[in-house]
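Closing statement on the adenosine-5'-diphosphate sub-project.
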Amino acid sequence: MSTPTAGDWRIFRGDGVRRQVAMPGAPPWRRFGAPERARGPLPYLISAAHADVVNAALHLRRPLLVTGPAGTGKSSLARAVAHELSLGTLLRWPVNSRSNVQDALYQYDAIGRLRETTLSRDQGEAEPSIGSFIRLGPLGTALVPGSSPRALLVDEMDKGDVDLPNDLLTVFEEGVFDIPELIRLPEEQATVEVLTADGDGTATVERGRVHCTEFPVVIITSNGERDFPAAFLRRCVRLDLPVPDEEQLRAIVAAHLGEEALREIDDLLRTFLRRRAPGELATDQLLNAVFLRGSGVDLDAEGLLNAVLHQLSGTV
Ligand SMILES: Nc1ncnc2c1ncn2[C@@H]1O[C@H](COP(=O)(O)OP(=O)(O)O)[C@@H](O)[C@H]1O
Ligand SMILES: [Mg+2]
């Protein structure tokens, strides 16, 4: 067994020799395990003009549709708004090709209920409430009435089915949805406690209907892979985030990694800007490169810079 020498960033050497290594510290944006509160908010920089578009959506109680190339801070904006306005934990709905509005509203575990009900009966115990088998999804949880609105991120909606925007439209217009499994219940079970998307959180549902009292702060992101119908676009406030210029990139690096990280990054910035010009390169790729250099990684080593600052468009 050999131990890597101090200051040696090469943890894996490919020499087949088994060794004990201490993993180096993770970049701030890749730290897990600690709740967001303990970790502190990740910094977010936005121009006054763009912040005003966010404000317009907030005033109008309309969803904000955020577009722009990869890594321009679309998803991070939702986290920043939820944090700054103290809207609680951000509700996230990561959209994929199988996503549908129904599942995002709530899911009913009929099989689980059948199993547990039979089990309780066999053991002579009280049957569990139907509410413990109904879990509201991120969209459903966002519509639960409360003293202040919740923040909901509908992330990468262009990855979803063509019908998704229209299906969502109805929910966003009405601010209400029904849970038929609860509507059917007898009068004495008019009030049911169901689970929410907040881990062990619960919400009280009356007569199987969830009706928001304040429209949630909804931020929808899209990478522009799909056009949305006019009826949907009409009801959203649009924010198109541009790729950050050199000055903004420096500010973002300093915000994430401290002012001292700006020393000796001129060459990295130049390379980043040169490579970004013809294709697509995300801001977090620059953050990765600066972080690696700060950890003593030799970015001039063959192929290493290419591995971090690789083009995002085209075939891989
Ligand atoms: N304006 C910004 N201010 C601070 N950090 C940013 C900004 N834009 C991007 N970043 C950083 O770049 C990374 C990618 O941002 P993200 O929000 O995931 O981009 P997108 O959703 O547009 O692809 C995040 O780690 C984020 O911290
Ligand atoms: Mg994103």
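The chain has two domains: 48-240, 243-308. With this model delivered, the sub-project is considered complete and its resources will be redirected to Aim 3.
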